[in-house]
Amino acid sequence: MDSAIETTHSEHDAAEHEHVFVPQHRHHFETEEQQREAGSFGMWLFLLTEIMFFGGMFFAYLLFRNWYYDAFVAASNTLNIGMGAANTAILITSGFFMALAVWAAEVRKKNLLVIFLVLTTVFGCAFLGVKYFEYKEKFELHHVPGASFDVSQFVNPPIDAKTGKPVGKPLAPDVVQHTQIFFFLYFAMTGMHALHMIIGIGILFWLLLRAQRGEFSVGYVAPIENFGLYWHFVDIVWIFLFPLLYLINRHPLAH
Amino acid sequence: MSATATSILNLPDQATATIPKKNFITAEDGLLSWLLTGDHKRIAMLYIISITFFFFIGGAFAGLIRLELLTPQPDLVASDTYNKLFTMHGIIMVFLFLVPSVPATLGNFLIPIMLGARDLAFPKINLLSWYLYVIGGTLTLTALMLGGVDTGWTFTTPLSTHYLNTHVVTTAMAIFVAGFSSIFTGLNFIVTIHRMRCPGMTWFRMPLFVWAHYAASVLMVLGTPVLAIAIVLVALERLVGIGVFDPTKGGDPLLFQHLFWFYSHPAVYIMILPGMGVISEVISTFSRKRVFGYTAVAFSSVAIALFGFFVWEHHMFIMGVSNYSALVFSLLTMLVAVPSAIKIFNWAFTLQKGSITFETPMLYAFGFMGLFTIGGLTGVFLGSLGMDIQLTETYFIVAHFHFVMVGGMLMAFLSGVHFWWPKMTGRMYPESLSKLAAVVTFIGFNLTFLPQFILGYLGMPRRYHAYPPEFQVLNVLSTAGATVLGVGYLLPVLYLAWSLKYGPVAGDNPWQATGLEWQIQSPPLTENFPEIPIMDHEAYDYEWLEHKTAHEVKAVG
Amino acid sequence: MGISPVIWQFLVKWLTASALFPREGSTIAPWMDELYFFLLAMTVVGLVLVGAILFTFSVRYRKSVHPVATQIEGSTLLEATWTIIPLAIFLITFVWGAVLYFRIYNPPVNSMNIYIVGKQWMWKAEHPGGQHEINALHVPVGQNIQLTMISQDVFHSFSIPEFRIKREVIPGRYSTVWFNATTPGEYHLFCTQYCGTNHSAMIGTITAMSPADYKKWTEDSTSGMSLAQNGERLFASMGCNACHSGTAAARGPSLAGVYGSKLTLTNGSQVLVNDAYLRDAILNPSQHVTSGYAPIMPTYQGQISEDGLIDLVEYLKGLNTNYRVQQTLTTSQSDQTAPTTPGVVKP
Questions:
Q1: CB A174 to CB C295 under 8 A?
Q2: Exposed/middle/buried for B237, CB within 10 Å: 0-12, 13-18, 19+?
Q3: CATH superfamily membership of A31-66+80-146+177-247
Q4: Taking 50 as the threshold, does the pLDDT of residue B16 lie above it?
């Protein structure tokens, strides 16, 4: 039996030389298909690490929500559900345009690709804009954990103008500090999510430049596809955050 | 050449071997070609240098600790300084040495070659991993220069969040960044192993070294992010002043421990599995035999990784966790010990009916077998609930983890470095001197850490700056051993560096080993193989090798 | 025990005399040592076995006498053997260790309770009779002693190696451990959980004494009121007696005899009233409202130290009637002598 380190057969060689590699082909891969599959697999693995990363915070949130139910319900009801819902719609739309961008790359339509990437970016920035206003409101209401945290709204809930009743159950002083834990987790989770969005928008700008130069309309779609995976993941994290933070146990009276 | 009659170094082609002119080291010149490389072999070399650098810093701290512990009084350094010494020793040794040691150096170098690939799946991310490691290391050194951190490497809350004013946040960020280095390495390995095996290389034809790294990579990818979020939450709590770990505000300090140990227990398997991979290769080569029970060893690696995720609470048995959860975790801990036992016996039986020689890598491997057996079995002591009550938080724990990490992992690392040194550099190290270093290390290690088991049962607590006088004799023995151990570690650095210029030329396959890496030139070409190989024989196929050497096939050079 | 008492005593005496082994100072120590010797034996046997295999094969199959290796794939029988036997030994260890664990962490019902408060960087021991000790603990031999422990700041760990006990001392809630000292003498106390700068200075001495000596010690070292008396004083001065007066129309439930009883809360759940419950109810009253009462009790978080809480808990443990509570309603301080409580020495 011959040495196992055989050279590949000449027919295979011929086939390889006939194959036209895209300029982005990396030479440690044997075929373009191998490169694309490896890239996609790598991105899925990375998203798995992100799940484990966010998972720690989700676990902490679920634990404390269980322990400090009343305080968390009261604190959760002060979140602006209108802005949260708007953000959800904005992010889903952004994801929709990202999916369209992937399609445009696959059918090699450069202008459409650029338009869809721009729209994805615009809606991503809109999300961050709404978040800015939300955080600003929290800051003004003194709901940011730390020295200036104000518990008065929870100890003496304001009266709802329409019904004449307090908007929520007043919390006892020993329990009211637990609302700070809610807000700590709120800022940690949405802040980490926003950080991932900012990074994503940064990458989007870079991809836009390259798309404009035509790099992704010649059959090389892997970066767009893989970024699409990342963007959809960030979207999904928000889809979990929104109900957990804003929606469950919402008082019907709350704004 | 210092070959002995029983050595396998005196084969005809070795005597006429020369360093090939074209190899990955000579391929390009200049500092930037190294700092911006995508070549997994060059990145491995970069790692070897940086890891050695941090090892000696961590080792210096260990030396100072042992020096202080010569006397029962706290007379060498102030208490705060001592606390910083053991904290930095732990952080540097765990995160900047042990976690990257075998995977980032030997794994990076060898996995693509062992699989018949030209490089890892993502060379640029591989380089990024190294830069993240360097940045993490630099941040650690920054924290050190700024005054150090004294939380202990375990960052226990609420001490680390509310009761210390040292540089916790800087260190937390350093570990965060270094953690991503580890995650990306693991990610790279998993994708490479899944997608870039050469034709004919089925899963069960891969060397066991690759199986071990696969299991460790799964742990890296799934476990490290949880550490990342745990230390981010600690850093946030320090910055904001309130968080989820402060009991006076309703938080739970034990939550941190769950999040921390959820990573840090798999971390110890991240550290040891690659070392076990090395042992498989070395024992097989120096017995001239396929590893006994290849499938069992491969599945044991995966089993260790899987079970390793479900035992973290055994670090918290006396912390007021529910008795029933303690039962569950103790049982699972007993289960995770079994695959390691299986491996030890499989390696031991690989020697049966083999043809054994005792070069330096084999000596280190034997040292590993003995010391890891002790270390692993003392782990069973600690997994046993009642026994843990007496032994936890004492020097018994310190001795246990040093036996598995230093007596086990570090010996395996040295075994691997010596084994693949001729492949990576083209040069052979001086055999007699290396054998001496191995023996010195073994003696020094036992002298340092065996007394600590006794100290542990006597009750001497860990992280103690001063201790009752009746513990002094054992501490002096331990320090004496540490001095010997230090010599044992210094020697390889010196003679390996020497061998780069003056060592005898090794040739392609000085050990006459199977494995794709030994069928190519030493040092390898940048692209590893002139043509992608086709794998048509099993791993550790010595019959194939015999047939091949009879034909004197020279590798391309 | 499994092995002959004579051999056992010889072994332990020889080991202790050689300073390589701790004295056995408590009733649980021999149980712990027995498991330890079993595990040591397991380790030695395992090491010798592996060493023997390595040595024998290395000698018999070294290259100079066995130049050609025989390729062997494996052996399912051997794999099964060295899977099942270690697993069996480890499972035995698991059961044995679990039984020991439950023994050490479940105190017997007739234990004498001593409170331990840990803080950076000292231990405070509080005997029910009011004796306070710093970095020291005097106990009688032959008596089950339960330690109820809490930390004022970070995690500490209370360890008496020669009694073979250790437990984490946690901020925010009580943890307990028990022992029964067998021999009078002095024993090391260590803090074994790293707690900051002076962690290694957080050590002390446990002094076990004969019951007669212990009685003498308590009489000589009393420092004023007993814990319960102090608790009674706090109960009045902090205004607890106003709501918990025990009268029919009182705003808070009567606390006489509440310790050890099963209470129904406003949310319908049933709780057992123990030390931890009492402490939590004082600090987080709104989550521990007895059914039938309004949630109006203010929180005392930040207003009472752990020592004060221990005094109150100890007081409530022994409260059988509200007679003195109502007496103190009109006076803000209790300065009358306390009724005799069994086992507690009067000043």
A1: no
A2: buried
A3: Cytochrome c oxidase, subunit III, four-helix bundle (1.20.120.80)
A4: yes
